[in-house]
Amino acid sequence: MGQDFADRHVARWRDHWIDVPFDDAIETATVRLARIARHFRDSMQAAAAEVALQPFEYETLHQLMIRDTPGTASPRTLAEDLGVSPAGMTGRLDTLEKAGYVKRTPSPTDRRSVTIEATTAGVAVWRRAMMLRGRAEEELFGALSERELATLNRLLKKLTTVIEA
Fold it and tell me: What pLDDT score was predicted for residue 137?
């Protein structure tokens, strides 16, 4: 296997950090994980564009669909999950509602609030984008054997449990 971007990055920067500890293995892993994360972000954006969604529209539909109550949520919960302001969420929902991908209905438990529901069209466009994202993920992870993928998942879980602790 030849050199990749991370190998070249570490070789280029290694000698610049004389007064700061520089661990080649940690830097290489960090750079590779960042490149993989960027690949996933780029593939999500490409999938969204392919189905004529803006990334924020896809992200909002995605967050709406992956809930315990798929396709239904309050605007407040969606805003919290997406890390956007209530005003930002209102703008997102206005755009999605205008496109016919979501609808606002009065909350059955609190007449002062609304519930956001994905429409049939919203579910369909989200599923098409998910199919495209899935292909990109399968293509990337297809480079690994089943055993290598299991090992990778085990190692990544060790890292994510540190983050979540």
Answer: 95
What pairs with residue 11 in β-bridges? none
Structure tokens given for 43:
């593939």
77 touches 158 (CB < 8 A): no
pLDDT of residue 108: 78
Residue 63 has pLDDT above 90, yes or no: yes
> pTM to 2 decimals?
0.83
Q: Which amino acid does the sequence have at 121?
A: A
Calculate the alpha carbon distances from 9 to 6, 16, 25, 135 in Å. Answer: 5, 12, 12, 29
105 with 93: CB under 8 angstroms?
no
Q: Count of domains in the chain?
A: 1
Q: Output the domain CATH number for residue 72.
A: 1.10.10.10
**Which residues on adjacent β-strands are paired with residue 73?**
116
